[in-house]
Amino acid sequence: MAPGSIPDSQIPQRRIITLNDAERVLRTSGSRVSFTECLDCIQTADDIKNHDERDQALTVRDLAVERGISIFNPKNIHNNRFPKFVSASVSFFLAKSPSIDALPENIVKAEKFITELRSNGLSQNPRKEYLTKIDKEIQHLSELSLLLAETTPQARVRLSSKLRHPFRCPELAIDACNRALAERPTDEAALTSRAAAFLDIHDTPAAKSDLTTALRLNERNTPTLVVVVRYLAAERDLKKALTYALEAVSICEEIEHTEDTPQSALTSYRYALSSVLSVATEDTNLRDETALKIINLGEVTGQPTPYFFLLAVQHAIDAGNFLHAERLLKKISQVQINLNGGERSQVKSLRSKIKRWKQRNQGQFDI
After folding, report:
1. Residue 255: left (phi > 0), alpha (psi -120 to 50), or beta?
2. Of 281, 295, 297, 341, which has the most beta carbons under 10 Å away?
3. Measured distance CA(157)–CA(282) in Å, rounded
4. Distance CA 255, CA 253 (A)
């Protein structure tokens, strides 16, 4: 914490659009960096989907989080992106682990940081949504500790999923899957989860290898097919991706979905439908039909539906299909889906990503 740090209002805000913009702000000798600029740098790094720029993006993100932690003061809590800073900080501490063996020590550091953040920053300015965010991060860290205590292949796969989301630590997720596969080389879930983590770091050849093995073991495994869709979208083969997405939906629709259907089957079906939305760039009727299925499924089961719409938007952005992502966001408003506060914030974040993509395509900005 740095109570004496410079308030944002005293520093002229610089426009940060590219990674080079961010690096210049963070690395300039004697440069005064505001908390808002640190958040801009984090966001710019998170927007990068190009494999060739990944190392630079990770460096920028770490520099920005570290600087944000060092200059943070309670006034920064009023920044509407404070929850994102909390998430980025937790990921920053965990990602310092060279392997999952080192995670316990860094989990303690992350818990200490956000606990201090709560007591020092929110004690005088309590905002319910921010308190909820910090409590949720602490809960996630506790769950992570419990998963680390289990060493079965199944537990390692669950650990991998947790490390990918919400903690954004794909390298550690890969380590967890490696350990599961060392004990059970033909574990479909571990192969699929590792492939998803490889896609998170844009290592498409490694993802392809795991997916090929997983499909050879079971070509009708819906979670695997959904990750195949992500892989093909990353390779810009949307036609083939849509074929796999429709196959996943077809497999899921072989059973009737009611309120008594097992949750795992309902989740697989929703992910399959979301994968169709993410790659159905040309067929308006198919998009409308799929959107209706997601809504109807939510009504049948009493489960919320926005997550799977927003997941489709995020996957479209991840594959670089920003115009399609924009169309999907418009679809959400057209079908009048009820969004809670967190989901509205996510929609705002997705719109910002699309806006920044448009800005970057209009030319780079110098600081």
Report:
1. beta
2. 281
3. 35
4. 5
Per residue in 182-227, pLDDT (tens digit) is 999 999 999 999 999 999 998 999 999 999 999 999 999 999 999 9
Residue type, 249: V
Question: What span, in angstroms and rounded, lies between the C-alpha atoms of 164 and 171?
Answer: 9
The chain-wide mean pLDDT, for the chain, equals: 85
What b/e readout covers 60-92, taking b as 16+ CB neighbours within 10 angstroms? bbbbbbebbbebbbeebbebebbbbbbbbbbbb
> What residue type is assigned to position 210 of the chain?
D
CA 322 – CA 316 distance, rounded (Å): 7
Q: If we measure between CA atoms, which residue out of 100, 278, 67 comes closest to residue 172?
A: 100
The predicted pLDDT at position 6 comes to: 46
Half-sphere exposure of residue 37, counting CA atoms within 13 Å on the CB side? 27
Peptide bond into 83 cis (omega under 30): no
Residue 277's CB is within 10 A of a number of other CB atoms, namely: 24
User: Which tens digits make up the pLDDT trace of 147-178?
Assistant: 999 999 999 999 999 999 999 999 999 999 99
